[in-house]
Amino acid sequence: DGQLIVPDHPSVGYMPGDGIGPEVWQGARPILDTAVEQAYQGRRAIDWQELPLGQSALESHGERARPGPRDVAHQAGRIGADRGHGRGV
Q1: What is the mean pLDDT of each successive set of 10 residues along the chain, which is 89 residues long?
Q2: pTM of the prediction?
Q3: Pick from 50, 57, 58: nearest CA to 25
């Protein structure tokens, strides 16, 4: 039917990377969270999932390269129907 179904608490992956990335993310995340909270009167929120890239990937996975696209999607919980919350996006 072409209707987009978004769960109330979708898992969304983010990759802060190296350099200024972590600092930008620290400033952006509270703004995004507040926007969602105000738009949906607290009924919805984003479940942020860090996807290591760069130095954080080296420390956690032993290599700087991020996982392949399928692995990234799987880590963020967005393959096919996400835990019964509707269609994957």
Answers
A1: 91 80 90 97 94 77 65 57 40
A2: 0.64
A3: 50
